[in-house]
Amino acid sequence: MQVEGRTILVAGGSSGLGAACVRRLAARGARVVIADVDPAGERLSAELGDRAVFSPTDVTDEASVAHAVGLAVDRFGGLSGAVACAGILGPEKLLAREGVPSGANFRRVIEVNLVGTFHVVRLAADAMRAQPPGDDGERGVIVTTSSIACEEGQAGQAAYAASKGGVASMTLPIARELARHGIRIVSVAPGVFETPMIAALPPEARRSLAEQVPFPSRLGEPDEFAALVEHVFENRMLNGSVIRLDGAMRM
Ligand SMILES: NC(=O)c1ccc[n+]([C@@H]2O[C@H](COP(=O)([O-])OP(=O)(O)OC[C@H]3O[C@@H](n4cnc5c(N)ncnc54)[C@H](O)[C@@H]3O)[C@@H](O)[C@H]2O)c1
């Protein structure tokens, strides 16, 4: 599917990898719905003019996601693509120095990263199946964001790794189910990218992460993620897989 003239919802589009997708897809002529809890998406949408609209969205709240999907249909006449980027890190040790943390943080990370992605996928797919079929009967494309932590999570990342493992694992069954509607789904598992999520780490930790990338030995640029997302939209044979984007990094 060429993105020009298509409407694409980007959950988590106010910042980092999602914002890079918003910019690249809009530059290629797509109309973009920025769905995020962070109102910074309002400024990004204003910058892009009538190619974009911001919908304040909490992905853990089905009604809020449904509203963003409805806005795509009402404003732009349908929905052909969705990129699920909303996510949080929520690091927490299993055994704290004093006592054992409750399951609240674990539940929250699963709720945002995994259940939130599920809401975006299913509600976007429901709108996509109403689209007229294009070449090969294609109606829509969904890209989710896993992480290399789904296979190589670090200490303190039990919740994050579990959530991203879930995002990766659901890719194939969803691809199989949505095939008859002409909807593809692919998950991208990034290594470490230069975004506000990573900027929050101490400089020494960021330097050490960059050094662990064999080549190129640096953090990924958000637009390199967005370029892969664009390619997934365009390449109809990509379906049901999880693609690592990590410069050969193994954490
Ligand atoms: N940056 C990396 O190195 C890296 C690596 C692997 C995976 N990822 C994943 O990529 C995705 C994007 O991360 P990023 O690095 O751009 O981080 P980021 O913090 O810059 O962006 C995340 C966005 O998600 C939004 N968000 C958080 N909770 C939300 C909710 N409940 N509802 C709606 N929006 C919500 C935030 O407001 C923010 O705009 C995340 O899922 C993250 O886990 C990032």
Show the helix and strand layout.
Blueprint: E1 7-11, H1 16-27, E2 31-36, H2 40-48, E3 52-56, H3 62-76, E4 81-84, H4 104-128, E5 140-145, H5 149-152, H6 158-169, H7 171-178, E6 183-190, H8 196-199, H9 203-211, H10 222-234, E7 242-245
Parallel strand pairs: 1-2, 1-4, 2-3, 4-5, 5-6, 6-7
Helix pairs in contact: 1-10, 3-4, 4-6
Bound molecules: nicotinamide-adenine-dinucleotide.
Domain Ketoreductase: 6-196
Enzyme class: oxidoreductase
Keywords: Oxidoreductase
What does this entry show, briefly?
The protein is of the alpha/beta class and 251 residues long.
Describe the protein in words.
The structure is a single chain. Helix content is 44%, strand content 15%. It contains ten helices and seven strands. Bound molecules: nicotinamide-adenine-dinucleotide (NAD). Nicotinamide-adenine-dinucleotide is lined by residues 12, 14-18, 36-38, 57-60, 85-88, 112-113, 116, 145, 147, 190, 192-193, 195-198.
For this entry, give a set of tags.
binds nicotinamide-adenine-dinucleotide; Rossmann fold; 251 residues; seven-stranded parallel sheet; alpha/beta; 10 helices
Helix content percent band: 40-55%
Flag low-confidence runs: none
Q: Give the CATH H-level superfamily.
A: NAD(P)-binding Rossmann-like Domain
SSE run: EHEHEHEHEHHHEHHHE
What is the SS-derived class? Answer: alpha/beta
What is the fold named in CATH at topology level?
Answer: Rossmann fold
Distance separating the two termini: 34 Å
In CATH, the architecture is 3-Layer(aba) Sandwich
- Structural domain tally: 1
As a whole number of angstroms, the C-alpha radius of gyration is 18 Å
Ligand list: nicotinamide-adenine-dinucleotide
CATH C-level class is Alpha Beta
The major sheet is characterized as: 7 strands, parallel
* Net shape: globular
Residue fraction in strands: 15-25%
The tally of beta strands, per DSSP, is: 7
Organism: Aquisphaera giovannonii
Family: Belongs to the short-chain dehydrogenases/reductases (SDR) family.
Enzyme class: oxidoreductase
Keywords: Oxidoreductase
